[in-house]
Amino acid sequence: MEVLMVRSPIIVGIDGSQHSLDALGWAAREATLRGLPLLLVCCTTYRYTADGPYLARELCDRADRVLAMALGIARADTVAGSIDVQGEVSHQYAPGALIDRSADASMIVLGRRGLDEYSRGFVGSVCAAVARRAKCPVAVIDGWSRDEPVAGPVVVGVDGSMNSDPAIGLAFEECALRGAALVVLHACFDQDMSTLQDDSATEVRAAVEAAGRLVLAESVSRWWKQFPEVRVRRNLVRDRPVRHLLVLAADAQLVVVGTRGRGGFAGMDIGSTGTALLHKTPCPLLMVRQPGGECVDE
């Protein structure tokens, strides 16, 4: 009997906003690079019944129009129909619909904000909820265009915990697909210690930096064996990682981080670094959980 191999799709959330169309463009390119099917999901829900069936019909008609427009864009963006592009209208609340589908997805791609978001610089409610609970990697896109140059590196933040290992592996994979260099950043201090000058501080700094170099070497070594063609640059810093990741992101085509690192605690969905990047990263951000969606408490 022939066994059919089912390839998990890349899912992109669509609401008709420019942010969701930016996400669609990025997702179509990612699906083409990976040879994966692309599934567009447009959600329509309403919480009040006073307007009855009329409101339901209006919302469903709008969702159908938005999905048809997005399908046309996605199919035009993919190279000569090289991937399968499908669409679905869900009547489930958007975060729940996307989180439920994440168990069978390769990746979920979302715009940072949607039609119901009005505050520039802040992440949308759907994006935040999905990033915290999805069981697959989540890409957050803000202002990306396929016409922009994408020659920059992929940047990944590592902290030596098991929670960052899947992010390192996915970052290597993205570099191999894109022909990009990889910048691996590790912050060996959680605070800026450059102003401390006494002898004891110098000794502590030297010891911690040596440990940091070891973290970088060990984090990279296993994945470099699988992707020897990827050019790697290691970057050790003495401060909280967010500021340095944002500086690197200005010239990067992608930033990859684990959802929770060494400072996390049980029950925490996204650590402080991931939360800050979720709001501010100027390039696409890819957030990666441990397999099964669980973080390892260390």
TrEMBL record:
Mind listing the UniProt keywords for this protein, alphabetically?
Answer: ATP-binding, Nucleotide-binding
InterPro entries in the record: Rossmann-like_a/b/a_fold, Universal_stress_UspA, UspA
**Residues in UspA domain copies:** 9-141, 153-289
A Pfam family it matches: Usp
The GO terms describing molecular function are: ATP binding
Q: Which family does it belong to?
A: Belongs to the universal stress protein A family.
State what protein this is by name: UspA domain-containing protein
Organism annotation: Rhodococcus erythropolis (strain PR4 / NBRC 100887)
